[in-house]
């Protein structure tokens, strides 16, 4: 930890503190994992991992994750997805500072259909801002990569103009990240020259021209990454795509090195050297979901195998002894939390953020 490094108050960072954190990541050549959430258990495991490894962290929730947090049978499902995100944000605002690390709160992929979801959250965020001087989230993502670049940037402009007065940043996506979620899978080799699979530096420059005067924005650029986990050999990362985008913006705008804030989607299962290379090109955020889902699930599987009878009988059928201390949800959910903490420790190591929390 550099002694001269700017320090921040622990807790959720927004506005200029969020910018300070992003700048520190880029200057230090490290990134933060952005961890998808499904419950208070995953949130707490994420905060625990950040505190244990003295790293700042990004907590994010998808539209579906927010719906689950509100309750799968929440009567109005669209409202549930807005309120689930609000509930998650309030949970994190209440607890994060006590873990002694900085947290970026973010909403994940919102395609054209989900723009109203983000706008619904912003209604609540603006109310929270009026009350407390802080928005609910540090940043939101719009994924309009399947639309025309023109539509993508027009909508992004409109949303960023609304968010910037609260210091809320915008993440956009340019180019298509492959993977199951996007209906692009399998034979990536055939697509090596598909311009939509690899973000074009000229598109990134247009986004920079339009959005950087408005507020904080970041770009998820496709450089062969895929959402989800595939057999080794199916993913061909080309981090030089990121370098080329940075170089073009730097040249046209006469900026310093790595002017863009870049985001790495579909990082699960990526080769570690390619991750390290991407970090040198201004990537400050790497999404992690698939790997932490597995890390959360696996210990429960092991626990149920080891204590099978406690999941079938309330009392031992042989001697009548109660199994309560084995089936108490806190026992097995805790195993999941520990699995997730361990996997996040690995991610924090890969991304170089261990011991680098700016919180003081
Ligand atoms: Zn993406």
What does it look like?
This protein is α/β, with parallel strands linked by helices and 360 residues long. The protein has a single domain, classed as Aldolase class I (TIM Barrel). The chain has helices at 15-28, 40-52, 63-70, 77-95, 115-132, 149-163, 201-211, 240-253, 272-279, 290-306, 324-327, 329-350, and strands spanning 11-12, 32-36, 57-61, 102-107, 139-142, 169-174, 178-179, 217-221, 226-227, 262-264, 283-288. The strands form 2 sheets. It has an 8-stranded parallel β-barrel with strand order 2-3-4-5-6-8-10-11, surrounded by 8 helices. The protein has a two-stranded parallel sheet with strand order 7-9. Zinc ion binds at residues 109, 143, 173, 177, 220, 265.
Question: Could you outline the blueprint of secondary structure elements for this entry?
Answer:
Layout: E1 11-12, H1 15-28, E2 32-36, H2 40-52, E3 57-61, H3 63-70, H4 77-95, E4 102-107, H5 115-132, E5 139-142, H6 149-163, E6 169-174, E7 178-179, H7 201-211, E8 217-221, E9 226-227, H8 240-253, E10 262-264, H9 272-279, E11 283-288, H10 290-306, H11 324-327, H12 329-350
Parallel strand pairs: 1-4, 2-3, 2-11, 3-4, 4-5, 5-6, 6-8, 7-9, 8-10, 10-11
Helix pairs in contact: 2-12, 3-4, 4-5, 6-7, 7-8, 10-12
Bound molecules: zinc ion.
Residues 109, 143, 173, 177, 220, 265 line the site of zinc ion (ZN).
Q: Give the low-pLDDT segments.
A: 180-193
Order of helices and strands: EHEHEHHEHEHEEHEEHEHEHHH
Instruction: Report the count of strand segments.
Output: 11
CATH architectural arrangement: Alpha-Beta Barrel
CATH topology: TIM Barrel
| Main sheet properties | 8 strands, parallel, barrel
Q: Number of DSSP helices?
A: 12
């Amino acid at each position: 930890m550099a002694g001269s490094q700017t320090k921040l108050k622990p807790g959720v960072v927004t506005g200029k503190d969020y910018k300070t954190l992003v700048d520190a990541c880029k200057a230090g050549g490290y990134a933060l994992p952005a961890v998808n959430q499904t419950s208070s258990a995953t949130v707490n495991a994420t905060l625990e991992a950040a505190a244990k490894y003295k790293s700042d962290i990004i907590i994010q929730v998808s539209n579906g994750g927010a719906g689950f947090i509100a309750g799968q049978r929440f009567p109005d499902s669209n409202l549930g997805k807005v309120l689930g995100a609000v509930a998650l944000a309030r949970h994190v605002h209440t607890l994060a500072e006590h873990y002694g690390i900085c947290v970026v709160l973010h909403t994940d992929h919102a395609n054209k259909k989900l723009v109203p979801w983000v706008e619904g959250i912003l209604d609540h965020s603006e109310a929270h801002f009026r009350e407390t001087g802080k928005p609910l989230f540090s940043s939101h993502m719009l994924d309009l990569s399947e639309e025309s670049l023109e539509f993508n940037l027009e909508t992004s402009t409109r949303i960023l103009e609304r968010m910037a007065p609260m210091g809320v940043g915008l993440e956009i996506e340019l180019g298509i990240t492959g993977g199951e979620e996007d209906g692009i899978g399998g034979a990536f080799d055939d697509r090596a020259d598909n311009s939509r699979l690899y973000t074009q530096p000229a598109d990134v420059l247009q986004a920079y021209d339009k959005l950087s005067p408005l507020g904080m924005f970041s770009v998820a650029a496709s450089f062969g990454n895929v959402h989800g986990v595939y057999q080794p050999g199916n993913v061909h990362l080309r981090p030089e795509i990121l370098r080329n985008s940075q170089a073009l913006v730097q040249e046209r705008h006469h900026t310093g090195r790595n002017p863009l804030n870049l985001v790495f989607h579909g990082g699960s299962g990526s080769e570690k050297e390619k991750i390290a290379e991407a970090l040198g090109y201004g990537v400050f955020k790497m999404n992690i979901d698939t790997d932490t889902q597995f890390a959360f699930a696996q210990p429960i599987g092991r626990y149920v195998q080891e204590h099978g009878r406690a999941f079938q009988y309330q009392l031992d059928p042989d001697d009548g002894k109660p199994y309560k201390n084995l089936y108490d949800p806190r026992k097995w959910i805790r195993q999941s939390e520990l699995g997730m903490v361990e996997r996040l420790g690995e991610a924090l190591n890969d991304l170089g953020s261990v011991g680098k929390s700016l919180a003081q």
